[in-house]
Write a structure and sequence with these properties.
Chain lengths: 310, 304, 421
């Protein structure tokens, strides 16, 4: 381990494109040849990579299998029969085609929710950064408290409150809490202060533009990369959120995929075939998203670097 | 009030409208979905539903003072749940952060081949929903389904992932899901360390290991602390993973295994809303205390 | 003004009351197999009421929470399935409405006393018993014959038979029992004459550590310690493999369980035999499952809902509709004959094993005074956790019951119930 950490810096890299790649590394190191150090370093990272990958590989191969094949044979090899098509068809046919509905709901919650959350956060973060107003830092402190409260500690009180008003078990009961993201405000404020020069706003104001218009024409445009990061964080956050819909919803038609899979998982003892559907459903939920996110990855790093978890 | 009624000039009026329009929607929703429910929960926690006699007539609402709190603080289930979550955090947080720092330093060094590839690879689990991750691991922990168990037992290790080893199994699911994100987070911080600082240290004769720990690491310490803070808050919320592992039918996880599960069970199995609210308030308080401790620690370090 | 209100009222009464050509649609939530078929048959045979069926997760698997939530959210379905143990909780939390106004009393004579006692709480009747689950012993008749064994009639014989099976075939057991099946152990205690809950003196008495319960748990602790039965999740992978390969020869079961067997091990059709549960002294059976139909508070069509519930619980058509997919036993004794005929005709898996007669005899021997506590969702969850934690250890079940009793009493007192032990 010690040798591994002796590194040569390739220099500060600015863009999300990252390093210019690996270079000869051994020049400054003593003792061992550079390729040995490299191999050791790379294998350590590769072990982590393998650990990351294996469960996903298992999932992908499992999609090709019938129920008995899941329980027998090599987990890290596909089924010779390659039952992907039947499995996916059965998945979408099960329980009167509920899975498609769940997928659609999840997409609405995640895409719509993340979009609204981003707009609200960016506007609020910008306002916190660019306007002086009374009690500003106190209000901001309250938002930070919101960041630090575990989300789940809010969900049950929220349910209790909404059920008193008979608002639970509606799409809104899930959607509205999802679009409020204090952490997004925190990121947006940091991003705004780093990226938008005050002079630019002054110029717009001198031109006579109203504040809201200035925000949309100048602020939002400059904050776009930060907004994308907030969107992605919130999107994954919503996609991941299991507790809120679990608490709020009882109507099967409003369920998210996660909730649906959980319901099936609790019914495995009545119908063992759900195991197969859960595996296939997990893959159908996850794999397209993974493929979609690989090209988007640089936004993460860009946003995190700028937005200042500093 | 007087200052507001006096005619403000156009700029201040515009500015006030700007604040209202830009901050207003978030502020209102934040109030409705965070502040009001929390206050409502605090309110609920001072009441309780009391049955009388056999109870066929239903419960009556009575003011309870601090009864619910004293009940929670003497409730073996709640205390055990808090203990479990703390133990879980005590294993999970350092393990995750140390692994993430090591991998980030490795990736930041010029020594690793295929860095972009590994970045992408390690990041993947972040996008896998927690429930799906739990399900995949549940199957990888289930005898009969799991190639891992077969593999281990051919090596002569009989591991009971869902029995005695369940705490480790939960930590593993969480580490798997969070590692890549934290690696990228810290890596991004490392990238921002100016090369000149590193070079200066090198000219002063510092070894590379020394540079890693004394030059690079202090620069990313704030990032590491933020990551730690969020991981601690996250570990207090433990719910999905134990809920899934519980469904294996043969696991030691009870239905009130974590405070969060207790809150859920109280609300939805026992219909004891007041106790559920109390437990939620206590979870928030616990998070507050831990956050406070971490930020205090961070500020002390920063002052040095 | 007054006249206007009056005529509006009249009009609305007219709509609700006569409704000759008005079709009322009601919703029914259940997870019991055969429900969909029953609903379809009801809809075919009724014009003015149509039922929409919604499959919900099993009660303890989330179905009950869903019902509570729906009632709170003001979206109550019209009819729900509630299992016997949960009826008291539904009543104490005001989730279901009393049926006294709907002439439920006139059904009383059709039902056995124990079942009626489970739905008549305090001064009202809150649910209509639909199916019941007298415990019986299912055994592999073919393997028994091969080994020259007779099905046991007493628990002493059960033990001896188990030892014989072990001696003949070391990898085989007489029976598999669920490792955390709280309802199963409750049923076994019920059979032995225990009474875990009792409200007959005007307050709750909780006693899961009486002589009968202790005798039952000691018996099973010993049988388990001697490895004479398997204790593990039933219908899980290993249990199914054991069934398929003749390594597990029996189950303490109830009629509905044949449905599970036919789904999980269809190849064993015709190999099962059914007898009365082995006895302690004198014939008795516990009840192990079964369900009732109840009307949630706030449901908008109680009249129609009650008509549906009554039809499901008392009409031979309902039994006929469910028979091909469900082997659950109706509670109304007027339905026994048609159940026997329909089940034998529609379900090849149970043909020739004499299940209906055995179950019928068992149902008549269920002790009538058993009651359930006011929070059995929590109660079963806790008992399952306690059993999982200590079953298989020395005195495991006994200690689980002791801890459960204590925790239950504490919990109920905390909620204000008047509990004495």
């Amino acid at each position: 381990m010690t040798d591994v950490l002796e590194t040569e810096r390739p220099g500060v890299r600015s863009g999300p494109k990252g390093a210019a790649g690996a270079r000869r590394g051994g020049a400054t190191g003593g003792g061992k040849p550079w390729w040995l150090r490299r191999s050791v370093a790379t294998s350590l990272v590769a072990i982590a990579g393998l650990y990351t990958l294996l469960p996903l590989v298992w999932l992908v191969f499992a999609v090709t299998k019938t129920l008995p094949e899941l329980y027998s044979g090599n987990g890290f090899a596909p089924s010779a029969g390659f039952h992907v098509v039947e499995n996916v068809r059965d998945l979408f046919a099960a329980d009167g085609g509920r899975f498609g509905r769940w997928l659609l709901n999840t997409a609405v919650y995640a895409v719509g929710g993340a979009f609204c959350a981003t707009m609200l956060s960016v506007a609020a973060g910008y306002a916190f950064d660019k306007f002086p107003f009374r009690g500003k830092e106190k209000w901001y402190g309250l938002v930070i408290v919101g960041v630090l409260i575990p989300n789940t500690a809010i969900v049950i009180p929220l349910y209790l409150m909404m059920s008193n008003l008979q608002l639970t078990d509606t799409m809104w009961s899930v959607f509205i809490p999802l679009i409020v993201n204090p952490f997004g405000v925190y990121l947006a404020r940091a991003y705004s202060s780093g990226a938008i020069p005050n002079e630019l706003l002054e110029a717009a104001r001198v031109d006579g533009a109203g504040e809201v218009r200035t925000f949309f024409s100048v602020g939002l445009r400059i904050m776009l990369p930060g907004a994308v990061t907030i969107f992605l964080i919130q999107f994954v956050g919503i996609w991941n959120n299991f507790f809120l819909p679990m608490v709020m919803l009882t109507d099967n038609d409003l369920f998210t995929v996660a909730q649906g899979l959980f319901t099936w998982n609790s019914a495995v003892s009545q119908n063992p075939d759900y195991t197969r559907l859960i595996v296939v459903g997990s893959a159908v939920t996850t794999v397209p998203l993974l493929l979609l996110f690989i090209p988007l990855q640089r936004w993460w790093r860009a946003g995190l670097a700028e937005g200042g978890v500093k | 009030m007087a200052s507001i009624t006096s005619p403000p000039n156009r700029r201040t009026r515009q500015r006030r409208n700007g604040v209202l329009l830009l901050l207003g929607p978030f502020g209102l929703l934040f109030l409705l979905t965070y502040i009001v429910p929390l206050c409502y929960a605090v309110g609920l926690s001072f009441f309780r539903e009391r049955f009388e006699g056999i109870g066929w007539d239903g419960p009556k609402l009575v003011f309870a003072w601090f009864d619910n709190y004293s009940r929670a603080l003497t409730d073996a289930e709640f205390l055990a749940g808090v203990g479990r979550v703390l133990l879980y955090g005590l294993i999970y947080v350092p393990l995750l952060i140390l692994l993430a720092i090591s991998l980030a330093l490795l990736l930041d060094s010029a020594l690793t081949w295929g860095r972009r590839f590994f970045h992408t690879l390690l990041f993947l689990p972040h996008i896998v929903p927690g429930l799906v991750a739990s399900i995949i691991w549940l199957y990888l922990y289930t005898p009969g389904l799991s190639p891992l168990i077969d593999g281990f037992s051919s090596l002569g290790w009989e591991i009971d992932f869902l029995g005695d080893g369940v705490m480790f199994s939960l930590v593993n699911i969480a580490v798997w899901g969070a590692l890549g994100f934290n690696v990228v987070l810290i890596f991004v911080g490392l990238q921002a360390v100016p090369r000149s600082t590193v070079d200066a240290a090198r000219i002063d004769g510092a070894g590379e290991l020394r540079i890693a720990f004394h030059v690079k690491l202090p620069q990313v310490l704030p990032t590491v602390l933020v990551a730690t803070l969020f991981t601690i808050i996250g570990s207090l919320q433990l719910y999905t993973e134990p809920m899934i592992l519980r469904t294996s039918g043969d696991s030691p996880i009870s239905n009130a295994w974590t405070p969060n599960m207790l809150a859920y069970t109280s609300a939805f199995n026992s219909n004891d809303y007041h106790y559920a609210a109390t437990v939620s308030v206590l979870i928030a308080l616990l998070a507050g205390i831990l956050s406070f401790a971490v930020t205090r620690f961070a500020n002390r370090r920063a002052l040095r | 003004m007054a006249a206007g209100v009056g005529s509006a009222l009249l009009a609305s009464c007219g709509l609700a009351g006569s409704g000759d050509d008005e079709v009322v649609t009601i919703t029914f939530w259940s997870w019991i197999s055969g429900s969909r078929e029953i609903v379809d048959r009801f809809n075919e045979t009724h014009d003015h009421i149509q039922v929409e069926f919604e499959q919900v997760p099993s009660g303890l698997g989330g179905g009950y929470s869903k019902m509570y939530n729906a009632v709170r959210a003001g979206k109550a379905p019209d009819v729900v399935t509630v299992e016997y143990p949960q009826v008291p909780a539904f009543v104490t939390h005001n989730v279901i409405q009393p049926l006294t106004d709907h002439n439920v009393e006139e059904l009383r004579d059709q039902f056995p006393e124990w079942a009626w006692n489970q739905v008549a709480l305090g001064d009202d009747v809150y649910a209509v018993p639909k199916d019941m689950a007298p415990q019986v012993f299912l055994y592999r008749a073919d393997v028994f014959e091969e080994l020259g064994l007779e099905p046991p009639t007493t628990w002493e014989e059960f033990r001896e038979t188990a030892e014989q099976v072990r001696a003949e075939r070391p990898d085989t057991v007489l029976a598999t029992l669920g490792n955390n099946d709280a309802a199963l152990f409750a049923g076994l205690a019920w059979q032995a004459g225990a009474q875990w809950f009792d409200t007959s003196d005007g307050h709750w008495r909780v006693d899961a550590t009486d002589d009968s319960s202790t005798a039952v748990s000691r018996y099973w602790d010993e049988v388990i310690a001697d490895e004479l039965v398997n204790i593990e999740p039933v219908f899980a992978e290993k249990h199914i493999a054991d069934l398929q390969q003749d390594r597990s020869l029996g189950m303490v079961a109830a009629p509905w369980m044949l449905g599970n067997l036919s789904r999980f091990v269809p190849e064993l059709a015709g190999q099962w035999g059914a007898v009365q549960l082995p006895a302690w002294d004198g014939t008795a059976a516990g009840n192990y499952g079964g369900s009732t139909l109840a009307l949630p508070e706030g449901a908008s069509h109680p009249e129609e809902a009650m008509e549906f519930a009554r039809w499901v619980a008392t009409d031979p058509e309902a039994v006929a509709a469910a028979a091909p997919v469900s082997s659950a036993m109706p509670v109304s004794h007027e339905l026994f004959d048609s159940w026997e005929t329909e089940l034998e005709a529609a379900n090849p898996y149970v043909q020739g094993m004499g299940l209906p007669e055995v179950a019928r005899a068992a149902s008549e021997s269920i002790p009538p005074d058993w009651e359930w506590g006011p929070d059995m969702t929590e109660g079963f969850a806790r008992l399952m956790d306690e059993l999982t934690a200590s079953i298989g250890q020395p005195d495991g079940i006994q200690s689980a019951l002791r801890r459960w009793q204590q925790a239950t009493v504490d919990q109920l007192r905390l909620r204000g119930f008047d509990v004495r032990t």
